[in-house]
Every structure is written in C-alpha cells, then in structure tokens.
Amino acid sequence: MLPETYECLAEKMYEILEKIKKVYIDGSKVADYWISKRFSPPEEPFLICGVDSSWGVKEFKGYALYAINAEAVICMNGLDYEKLVDVDVLLPFKHVEDRLRLYSEIVEAKLIFKVLSRYNEMHGLIDGSLVSRVIRPIPGVNKVVMKEAFEKHENILSEIKSKALTGAKEFWCDSIIYAKKFIDEISIEESNQGYMLFIEYFEKLVAYMTLVEKFKDRLVFISKHSRTNDYFKESFKPDMALFETYTTGTGFSDPSEIKKTVVDEKSKWKLPNDIHSFFVETPLTVTFVRFEHGHP
Known about the structure:
Blueprint (H helix, E strand, L loop, with lengths): L2 H19 L6 H5 L1 E3 L11 E12 L4 E12 L3 E11 L6 H23 L4 E5 L2 H6 L7 H10 L1 H12 L3 H4 L15 H5 L2 H21 L3 E4 L16 H8 L4 E3 L19 H8 L8 E2 L6
Parallel strand pairs: 2-5, 5-6
Antiparallel strand pairs: 1-7, 2-3, 3-4, 7-8
Helix pairs in contact: 3-9, 6-9
C-alpha cells in the first residue's frame, strides 16, 4: 500500500465515518416491523440438525487437488454426527474456487437430505441463503451453453434429474458429486465450452429443487450476511443492518410483511425453464431473528 493511501485516509476519515453512520431512512419505520419476544428452551424435545462444509485446494500448473468436508450435527437426546468427505482432482481445470463452492453446496444438500429422510420430525438448518444457491451461476455458463448442453447431452441431464427426484441411493448417498461419472462422456472441446460445468451446476439445481419439494416445511436457510432490501426498499443499506441499528432486544421481524418466492421472473435467463418454474412458484418466508439482547 502506498504511503499516500494512509494520508488520504487520514484526511477523509471523518467524511467516511459520516457516510458509514448515515442510514438514509427514518429509523422509526424499522420498529414497526419488529416483534419483541423472549425465547426460552422448548418444553418438549426438539429434533434439529445443522449442516456446514468447508473445502481446501492445492493448485498446480495443470490440475487442482481438492478436499471437501461436510458435517451434520444432529441434536436428538444428545449429539450425533453424519459426515461426508471427498478428495479428488478437479476436471476440467477451470473456475476452481467457484466450482468447489458449488461442490460444497451440493454436498450440504445431500447430507441434509439423508438426515431429514431418516428422521421425520427433524428440522434442518443450512448455513447460507437458498436464493443465492439457486441463482448464483458458474462463470462460463450462459444461456447458449445451457441450450447446447441440453441439445447434446439431454440423456445425461435427464438421468441426473431422475435420480434426484426419485431419491435414488446412487445420487444422494453413493456419490459426492454425481456429475463426475460423466466426465469421460464429455469431450475436452465440449468441457472447454462449459458443458461439464453446466452439468455440475444442473446437479446442484435439481438437488435443491428436490430438497425443497420434499422438506420445504422443515428447512431453515441462515444468511448471516444478507444484503436484501425486502422490508426497506427505499434504503441504500440492507434490512439486516437497519434492524441491527434500530433494535436491540430479542425478537424477530414480521414475516407476514414480505411476500416473496425463491426466484423472480427476472432470473429466468439464469435457470432451465422447469427449474425456474418450480422456484418462481415456491414461497419463501423471510425474517430476521435476534436470540440474545444486544447481539447482532
């Protein structure tokens, strides 16, 4: 960092602080959406499972060696654990970090699917936003690649979708990333054009479509860094920052005020038609919750 950078910061410090503090909204409006509530432990045993994952990668000149770990912590008369681990070479050698993030999201979906299938009364917690998991594409995958992949490899995509929707053991339990079994069927030229990347992305989409379709009333997606403006569309700051600024007690934002689906019509170009149709009709309950006084 150039020394002049610190001089510039010193000169503009108070101006920057004022911009940070500025809310651009009447703070009294925030309280109108906040429902105060004191939380206490449930009287009856509550079955709950939390899933999270991590990944690491070592890149070499011609390939990347990666490892993915995922763990489900199951709270049911004590703690139990379910784990998934994968170590492999990433092929094709493209968009490494974006694809490993996608792999992690696939693994989390499969792990929570296994646990919720086993315990009928259990609720599943997943770290991260459902919306971002559905609409965040992979670099190199666009509408043209999508269309051509369906034309040339409809049999592969149909198999992936069928295995997911029917709860097939080889999709949900026996494979970490089911799409990898097709790597030899996709030519190097096609992989370079993004077909293999789309097939992996398609696996993630159908995994979450199946997960939501089967367990929608038992899933909670937790976004700790939400950037949405569902409550305060007139604000430059996200809803989460405003609730954190203007409320301090335990409680939650009124979910009945937000009428929202997982995706909207504007995201249609990002998704295959049938998957977009499913998520655009799937309602999403949005709320911000604080369990301890004075905490975020």
